[in-house]
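REQUEST FORM: STRUCTURE PREDICTION
Request ID: SP-0412
Submitted by: Lab K.M.
Chain count: 1
Length (residues): 256
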Amino acid sequence: MGDINIDFLKPNSIPKQWVDIMESYNLTQLIKVPTRFTNSSKTCIDHIYVTNPEHVRATKVATIRISDHFPVCYSRSHNSATRTHKHSLIKYRSYKNFNQSAFLEDLTLVPWNVRESFDDPNDALDCWEKLFLEVVEKYAPLKERRVKKPKQPEWLTEEMLKAMNARDKFAQLNDDRNRKLWRNRANNLVRNGKTTYYKQLIKINIGNSKKLWNIIRDLAPEESKTTPTTLKDGDVILSNPQDICFYSDKTSDAGK
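STATUS: Completed
RESULT:
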């Protein structure tokens, strides 16, 4: 992907050597509209090359005038098969016993002037980082945890994880009474935590339709997260991904 300086609006002028390279590597160029405009010309010289065009949902030339070139972008289909039977080890800082007032007070007691004894800026930075992390470690220690997914949702808290662990522990002990007790507690914590998190997220992005749409997609059940293959609006029926993308942008702009 990038500025290739070969105009694909004029297929007959594409160098044979370039065509041979594309064929050798099984490359398809996806951008078919002008990407650079001048007072006297328009050319398609910013390209996206792929080996599997069927994996690309849509392409777009964003009409943002940063320079005389418009940026090109694309979205692709991706099926990431999550391996739930494997666990990963992650590191995180625990804020369970974090005391902000004491933390800030301890920072004022750190001998920051020690870093001035170093002539090399990199050594001075290393010294500062070491002093800072010593205080951080005291109030928010670095811990390790085995998780099924390395990237955890932002609404997930340590309190939720503890409730889930207790639920699983009592399930292994066949203690049904305590299992149900901690299951209900974990469910309530997750429900309330997600509600609070997404309410705040929606409030923050209330004027950003793109981010709001991403939030709504994130809230949708996993099985319903499918990409529509056709778009119908009155008498208009579109099935080409590029046409759908272009039409959606136009109708979105019209509603602003």
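NOTES: Residues 158-219 form one domain.
Reviewed by: T.R.
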